[in-house]
Predict the 3D structure of the following.
Amino acid sequence: MDVASQHQMADSLDLQLPSGTMRALRHGAGTGVPVLCVPGLSANARSFDSVARTLVARGRPVVALDLRGRGFSPPTAPGTYGWRRHAEDVLAAARLLGFESFDLVGHSMGAFVSMEVAAIDAGRIRRLVLIDGVGVPEAAAIPPIRAAVERLGAVFPSAEVYCETIRKIGAAVPWEVWGPAYLYDLEEVPGGVRSRTSKEAVLEDAVYGSTHDAGHFWKWLRMPVLLVRAARPLLPGTASWRTRTRCERSPIFARKSRTRAKVACDRECRGRGTMSARRRRSARRAPRAGPFRPQSGAGSWSRRRR
């Protein structure tokens, strides 16, 4: 399997930030409001390929980022990670891209980083989408995440063996959606292939996330916010409702959801991967979705604002 041949066409940009070089993938050249995408803990810019295809077809330019130490973005020194540092990188990237105002999409840890961006400069964000990330991760969800991290730094004899190892974990479903993201950052080394993503960077961010509560950022979410969560857990037996219950009982979220205001819009996606199945639930959720109510066609979002 030729790793390079697996890469889909997208413009690769190397953005020179104050913190170092950041790789970004630019999809489409539409004139709509740009969309900036922030991946999860050990993920990379290719995680948003399916989202980008849908949005580009509707005239939206999309830029997905490799956070520092992920994909083709070089790692920085130890002690230079954490949500705040990543958020500063996101804002610096937006400035270099010329995005005065943009929609921001964050997945998992990327959702926490996106909320930190809102805390720093909420005026830049037109709308915010949080995918599988709004509060402290449940303890039962940590083992599959840890298993995915263990692949980092390890040398595999071939890309096929690497992919089969990932597939056995059971979280990258369906593979045709997630597979390209895992292949994207593979590099050839003596003895086989390995991920370019820095294990040290990921572990430092994992420790940071275990000692910080993203709920602190809820009060800064004054723009329209869409929370997307899976209908099923990452792996069987890892589900818990504690974070959801806490979110719904929060006076910030609960008050605004009752008034159909900007925050606490909610969508539940079928499947274990919220980005792998973007079909919307029935119209009974539409009143809560406010500015994110889908138009005709799965995956389309209206541009109406409140």
Q: What stands out?
A: The chain has ten helices and ten strands. The CA atoms of residues 151 and 195 lie 8 Å apart.
